[in-house]
Design goal:
There is one protein chain. The radius of gyration is 21 Å and the shape is globular. The chain is α/β, with parallel strands linked by helices. Strand 10, helix 12 and strand 11 (285-292) form a beta-alpha-beta unit. It has a domain at 91-109 and 232-467: 3-Layer(aba) Sandwich (Rossmann fold). 46% of the residues lie in helices and 16% in strands. The longest helix is centred in the middle third of the chain and has 20 residues, at 231-250. Helix 1 (14-20) packs across helix 6 and helix 19 (431-438) crosses helix 20.
Amino acid sequence: MYISTRGGNDSFSAAAAIKTGMAPDGGLLVPEVVPCLEKTFLDKLVGLDYHQRAAEILKLFLDDYSASEIESCLKAAYNSKKFDHAAIAPVVSLSEGVSVLELWHGPTSAFKDMALQLLPQLLSLALKKTGETDQIAILVATSGDTGKAALEGFRDVDQTQIVVFYPYLGVSKIQELQMVTQEGKNVTVAAVKGNFDDTQTGVKTIFNDLQYGKELERHGVKLSSANSINWGRLLPQIVYYFSAYADMVKTGRIRQGQALNFVVPTGNFGNILAGYYAKLMGLPVHKLICAANNNNVLTEFLRTGVYNRERDFYKTLSPSMDILISSNLERLLYLVTGDSTKVSCWMRELSGKGQYQVDAECLAAIQQSFWSDWVSDDITLKTIQRVFKQYNYVMDPHTAVAWKAYENYQEETGDTTQTVVVSTASPFKFSDSVLDAVGGQASKEKNEFDVLRELAALTDWAIPAPLANLENKKIRHTTVGNKEDMPNLVKQAVI
């Protein structure tokens, strides 16, 4: 069963939790019990493929889904038509101590595919299991990658509508084109004047407006979410930490039981939180290294225990991390303290005062597992250039932030634990920045597709097919509004 981080009395089955998205009291749903695995479980994973590994993890959390249902969902989510690598999430060794987990081989060339190809399958079954007859309206706030991945995952899925909001001029050209050209009879995309936090707050406000929800229900529509506030989004992400570990054992990079570090470029805290769940379940994780950009609210929190969103907002070369309100941190606070009263208090302080401070005991517990640093745009570009020259490996800006944060960690701590850098996007999604870094020039005279082709020629890397095909797609979504317009935009789309 699933319960709220803020202590509401309701509990939900897995299917109901996935359908609902958020808890009725405004909290996030978490499993009552985190399964604790024995060493034999890890031994078993080594000889399995990604589908089989995923099935073993998912069945631990989806009590009301049968093994055949889970298998059917996995086959629909991860297949050769959608993913261009047989391993789905391959691990690439770059140096003696560092490997890269590539999570961008899916249909939108970003790590969000790992969850958002599976979530629609799980939700579609959840509607049947719970006897739902209303349409489900999926609301999404995106800083770039979630939007396209959710649109692609939910396109033409029965009994669903999907509305995606993204910050106007706050995503890369390729990210925007991926969204505004999206096909599908049940999809809506709108730009919001402001930053990602404005769009995310707008979506949360809609969810928490009970009268608004009742009005939609009178029209046969219920709200749900595809952001990582939905447990069905977070759960599939736990899988690739176990899969990466199994691959490291399989290739002899580590021995079974040996600890790994994971370095994760982090914005909304969902990806790295999945790694923490994996650790709680028994995966031998030493440190989860949280890599941030100039919007370094998480680095400050993980070092001091103070979360303060009242700070300057920066548009950076790693826009998926341009976030000042990291929603999934609430789940971490609940996991560490087990105290919904404390969590509720901190969230009220964040909403009312713009900041909160956790107690020393909570901070110490967090710091046992987490370490953090942030990286500027200038250093990000230099890191892309240096890694390309040294390893002939091309990183997108988010992955470069993670790489440099790891170097800073190693320099500060001297830790020589084998480390996996989590790579969250294809370098071609951020081709302007990457081309400039590796020696080309993304001038204003060149359109984004000229830049893609030049980057491919310079690096000898192939452009992912979904990005190459964008050039001939029709722009279908042109709405730009203010955050105050969001409730009306949703109504127009779903009623």
